[in-house]
Q: What sequence folds into this?
């Protein structure tokens, strides 16, 4: 099946399924999921949901919305998110899905960059929406849709038209807005549904359970649009809850589960239960699982894990999967490149590296158009877009090695980011917030390994002469202050005070040395562990945080 040949948009795929199987379930949540907004759960069919979407299409159309404007959605993973998204997609409006954990300054930045015409929020997040909305108009889901004031091109969806603007952290300190077309999402589902092997999927029977947020391409592309093209159902959990995971999986009838490397690690710590073997799951799509956890997970729960690699920028145009590989593939294996992509592994001079030697992964689409199926560019940043495509190849910033078996193995990242529980965190963004404190003379943020979350945020701090108090109290004060400007997952989990920071010959931060020193500080107990405080701050935020 080639969704790009059949449909112009995600809505087209949904509408086709609604016409063919109106009584089939589209959205499912069992009562055991204990969703705070739907304690009894729900089971919504394609046909009934299409009626609600049609109502919203009429309302948005009457208000003058269409292709050329964007609408931000602060609707979490609730059914109302899918209703507004698909209604807007049907008339060509691009959505900006908002992370509910964003602080007002972070939200303001995303709305300002996207120039969102409107922000639609669920009632209990309306206050948070207004706090960071700036000039963007805000309504809740019970309000009448105000008249569009933007420049509308047409009220229809086209294949190359923008479907969503998703934010991804880069090395500039501020998130970049990735413009993603309908073509992008349909090509992603084409790849996802065509993985084969243990990830073989079937028309009309799949139930995809995900705790991942719809402001990420994994959930929005693979789980949501993927199920629409297959006529399957989505189980959109609010987040990962370890103590009710297996009951939710079993009660929903899930045939596929999506998660990140942190989730299998947590599930393996739970005592054995009857529910953990009552599931109908055929595979777990779970990139980044530690090889030790993978083997234990597969043996204990009877579910093969599929690892993969992709980026928000690459989508399904350049990605890898382990779905066809025999069990027991090696540590940090990200699988085999898809046939539709070309790739190179290069050193810092741009020369191809020998087999087995790590090099930066460069990718492009096979064929005449190297950018086909990729993101359409970084919003309002043509310079960064062209730098990423230097020489006709997309530069991923990931160091990867190629094995003699044709498989690729992840090695490290070139970009200054922390990859925590699937979230990309720009170290420069955290550094800039820490630097606001009068107690900080200089700082350097870096990732450190974390058993559960893959990586955690670590901050070296050089104290200003005016800094007062002991180190432990000062560290806590800094993190609490940071929480005013940063979502909880970006907060440093460790702080170490030092007299100076390692610098390179060009007087820039020696990032490699800093990363090694940070790992050593954690191992030896030389850093102040603030994970308990980070957890407390998470509970104090309104958003539903992930693990």
A:
């Amino acid at each position: 099946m080639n969704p790009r040949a059949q449909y112009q948009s995600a809505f087209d795929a949904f509408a086709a399924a609604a016409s063919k199987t109106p009584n089939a379930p589209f959205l499912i949540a069992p009562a055991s999921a204990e969703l705070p907004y739907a304690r009894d759960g729900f089971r919504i069919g394609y046909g009934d949901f299409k009626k609600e979407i049609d109502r919203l299409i009429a309302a948005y159309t009457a208000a003058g919305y269409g292709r050329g404007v964007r609408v931000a959605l602060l609707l979490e993973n609730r059914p109302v998110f899918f209703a507004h998204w698909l209604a807007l997609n049907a008339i060509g409006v691009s959505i900006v899905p908002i992370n509910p954990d964003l602080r007002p300054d972070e939200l303001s930045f995303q709305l300002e960059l996207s120039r969102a015409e409107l922000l639609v929020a669920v009632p209990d997040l309306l206050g948070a929406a207004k706090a960071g909305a700036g000039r963007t108009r805000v309504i809740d889901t019970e309000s009448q849709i105000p008249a569009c004031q933007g420049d509308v091109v047409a009220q229809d969806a086209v294949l190359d038209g923008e479907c969503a603007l998703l934010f991804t952290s880069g090395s500039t300190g501020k998130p970049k807005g990735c413009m993603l077309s309908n073509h992008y999402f349909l090509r992603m589902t084409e790849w996802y549904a065509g993985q084969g092997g243990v990830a073989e999927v079937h028309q009309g029977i799949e139930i995809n359970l995900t705790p991942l947020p719809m402001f990420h391409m994994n959930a929005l592309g693979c789980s949501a649009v993927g199920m629409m093209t297959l006529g399957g159902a989505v189980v959109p959990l609010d987040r990962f809850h370890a103590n009710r995971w297996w009951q939710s999986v079993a009660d929903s009838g899930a045939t596929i589960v999506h998660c990140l490397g942190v989730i299998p690690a947590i599930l393996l710590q739970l005592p054995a239960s009857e529910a953990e073997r009552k599931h109908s799951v055929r595979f777990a799509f779970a990139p980044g699982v530690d090889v030790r956890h993978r083997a234990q997970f597969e043996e204990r729960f009877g579910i093969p894990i599929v690892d993969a690699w992709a980026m928000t920028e690459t989508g399904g145009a350049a990605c890898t999967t382990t779905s066809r590989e025999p069990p027991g593939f090696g540590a940090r294996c990200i699988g085999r490149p898809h046939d539709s992509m070309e790739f190179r592994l290069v050193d810092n001079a741009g020369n191809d590296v020998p087999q087995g030697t790590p090099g930066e992964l460069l990718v492009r689409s096979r064929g005449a158009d190297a950018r086909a199926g990729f993101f359409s560019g970084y919003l309002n940043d043509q310079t960064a877009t062209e730098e990423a495509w230097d020489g006709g190849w997309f530069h991923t910033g990931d160091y990867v090695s190629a094995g003699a078996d044709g498989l690729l193995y992840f090695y490290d990242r070139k970009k200054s980011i922390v990859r925590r529980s699937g979230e990309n965190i720009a170290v420069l963004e955290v550094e800039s917030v820490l630097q606001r404190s009068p107690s900080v003379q200089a700082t350097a943020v870096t990732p450190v390994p974390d058993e559960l979350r893959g990586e955690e945020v670590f901050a070296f701090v050089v104290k200003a002469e005016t800094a007062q108090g002991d180190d432990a109290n000062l560290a806590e004060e800094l993190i609490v202050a940071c929480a005013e400007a940063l979502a909880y997952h970006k907060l440093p989990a460790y702080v170490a005070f030092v007299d100076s920071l390692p610098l390179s010959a060009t007087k820039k931060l020696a990032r490699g040395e800093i990363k090694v020193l940070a790992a050593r500080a954690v191992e030896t107990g030389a850093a102040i562990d603030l994970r308990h405080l980070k957890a407390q701050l998470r509970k104090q935020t309104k958003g539903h945080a992930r693990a």
Residues 329-414 form a domain with the Luciferase; domain 3 fold (CATH 2.30.38.10).
